[in-house]
Amino acid sequence: MKVTGSGDLEPLRANMGRGPSLSVIDIGQRQSVAVVEADTAFWALVDHEALADCLAGDFVSQVAARLPEMTAEMEQLRFGLRPSAVYFNPTDRCNFNCSYCYLPESLRRNGEQMTPSRLVDGLEILSAFFASIHGPQFRPQLIFHGSEPMLAREAVFEAIKAFSHVFDFGLQTNASLLEDRDLAFLTEHQVAIGISLDGPDRQAADATRHNWEKRGFFNQVVKVIDSLAGYDRFNVITTVTTANVQQLPKMVEFYHEHGVQTVMLNPVRCTRHEARNLKPADDILAHHFMAALERSYQLYQESGRKLVVSNFANILASILGPTSRRLMCDISPCGGGRCFFAVAANGDVFPCSEFIGLSDFRGGNLYSDDLEGILASPPFKAVTSRVVEKITPCRSCAIRHFCGAPCPAEVAALSGSLETPAPFCSFYQHQACYALRLIAEKRHHAFLWDDWNQGVEASLDLSR
């Protein structure tokens, strides 16, 4: 938007004391810069030549007048939500030995596996808990996660049949064990299906994702992709490492060619030592990640079909309207222990799946402890009280509520403390500037879900 100041210096008083604290960000766009009020995540795009008038004119007083309302909205998003989802591991075991897995090898080799009755008992407990805080008509999300949940196929499918009227189910799988009959069952019950693929060809895909004998399953995964491409509750995750970072534009081309609509290009989490060795440098990651996004835009222009990169779309949505975000990793406190939690195969409860291998963050056990007590336990409170205002240099960063300094499990494993910045700090800065640039260029809709702005309103319209 173009902002022109009134020339009246009186509104400067609004920028003193409790007034807005405004930061100017160079977004790499010739015409505009971004002006951000970081506490509320309010922003405006301002013409370069109008910047001085903007900061000395009526703009500041208008922002100041809306600060209480915008602050309340951000406070509700950050501190007012209750859990509405759970990541449930029906088994610790996995038939894969991926190079970057966040779960310990001993757990994946020899861990526990739930029986059908044990799993059903767990879902009874969770159903009662969610009904107690949201009401009996509420449908919480329950994502079967892992390790590899299809190793517990009988238990998982029995639970889906028994609770299809209670939970909105999802399944995250490596896809190696999915058969046609499984896909038919899952789609019939409208289960959201997420699978993983790390390369556009066999060599690249199997380099980091393979079984214990180092055999990959590229052809099987592609078969599943082709079977599910038209299913609207399907997505694919690519974990970005040094092994595939340069191939991200080709990954986008591959997914678009195979009709995939939603993907995640997730930078590898550095929770375990093996994964840290695969972390790409931030500048290299940013270069290839943005190239992949630009390639997705070109393909959209050519075909009219979007390929939404969800983790970036979430950053973009969080800028356009904080409450329109769909993922809760890039805000502080993150969603772990606050919007969702994770249950391991032995019933132990953690703030997030990423913490399952970090025993200090066990809050209790689903089968023996009260869930409200677990959510209030010291390990959970440590995560839900981790805010950017306590972290240097995040506390003074203009994009702190577009980033959130994730991931607490990752930073705890790396530094031994939760109050440290993200290992991908510079990459998040690149993403935020790129997102603001797309908005300035009016290209942002091509990178978002079609219904991203349902229920979203502008807090302050300065374009008139």
Describe the structure.
There is one protein chain. The protein is of the alpha/beta class and 464 residues long. 38% of the residues lie in helices and 13% in strands. The protein contains 17 helices and 13 strands. The strands form 2 sheets. Strands 10-9-8-7-6-5-4-11-12-13 form a 10-stranded mixed sheet. Strand 2 and strand 3 (42-47) form a beta hairpin. The chain is globular and about 65 Å long. Residues 1-14 have low confidence and may be disordered.
What attributes characterize this protein structure?
ten-stranded mixed β-sheet; 464 residues; three-stranded antiparallel β-sheet; globular; 17 helices; alpha/beta; disordered N terminus; single chain
What is the strand and helix layout of this fold?
Elements: E1 22-25, E2 32-37, E3 42-47, H1 51-56, H2 58-79, E4 85-88, H3 105-110, H4 116-134, E5 141-144, H5 153-163, E6 168-173, H6 180-188, E7 192-196, H7 202-208, H8 218-228, E8 234-240, H9 248-257, E9 262-267, H10 273-276, H11 282-303, E10 308-309, H12 310-320, E11 340-343, E12 348-350, E13 364-365, H13 371-375, H14 378-384, H15 400-403, H16 408-415, H17 425-440
Parallel strand pairs: 4-5, 4-11, 5-6, 6-7, 7-8, 8-9, 9-10
Antiparallel strand pairs: 1-2, 2-3, 11-12, 12-13
Helix pairs in contact: 4-5, 9-11, 11-17, 12-17
